[in-house]
């Protein structure tokens, strides 16, 4: 399994703009091997910024590579190439994690 996280730091009060974008259905949602997409907002209160993390879980590295090489993904990047990032976005960082172990928790009764 491969997990990709995208951490987006935005101006205070602008979290909803990011949530709207990532909650919408998109071409990635139909890709073979995408397990799920989780959108999280950091609860830690910060003075002048907020943080949103999008976590995409892929069944395998190969499934993720297929998305990266897909025509729809490449075309999306070409359309945005050279455009400035939205004013409310302070920074974006992307990380990739290969899952080495998952510990299942037995149900507690």
Topology at a glance:
Blueprint lengths: L1 E10 L3 H9 L10 E8 L7 E10 L2 H9 L1 H10 L8 E10 L11
Antiparallel strand pairs: 1-3, 1-4, 2-3
Architecture, CATH level 2? 2-Layer Sandwich
Element-level helix/strand string? EHEEHHE
Task: Kindly give the count of domains.
Answer: 1
Total count of helical runs of at least 4 residues:
3
Q: Kindly state the mean pLDDT as a whole number? A: 92
Describe, in plain words, how this protein is organized in 3D.
This protein has a 4-stranded antiparallel sheet with strand order 2-3-1-4. The protein contains 3 helices and 4 strands, in the order βαββααβ. It has a single domain, classed as Alpha-Beta Plaits (2-Layer Sandwich), CATH 3.30.70.100. By secondary structure, it is an alpha+beta fold. The mean pLDDT is 92.
Question: What are its keywords?
Answer:
4-stranded antiparallel β-sheet, about 110 residues, alpha+beta, Alpha-Beta Plaits
In short:
The protein is α+β, with helices and mostly antiparallel strands. The chain is built from 3 helices and 4 strands, in the order βαββααβ. It has helices at 15-23, 61-69, 71-80, and strands spanning 2-11, 34-41, 49-58, 89-98.
């Amino acid at each position: 399994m491969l997990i990709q996280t995208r951490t987006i730091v935005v101006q205070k009060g602008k979290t909803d703009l990011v949530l709207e974008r990532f909650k919408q259905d998109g071409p990635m949602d139909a890709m073979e091997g995408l397990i799920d997409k989780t959108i999280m907002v950091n609860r830690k209160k910060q003075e002048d910024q907020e943080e949103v993390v999008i976590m995409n879980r892929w069944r395998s590295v190969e499934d993720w590579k297929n998305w990266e090489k897909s025509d729809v993904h490449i075309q999306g990047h070409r359309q945005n190439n050279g455009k400035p990032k939205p004013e409310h976005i302070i920074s974006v960082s992307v990380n990739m994690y290969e899952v080495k172990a998952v510990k299942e928790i037995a149900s507690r009764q």
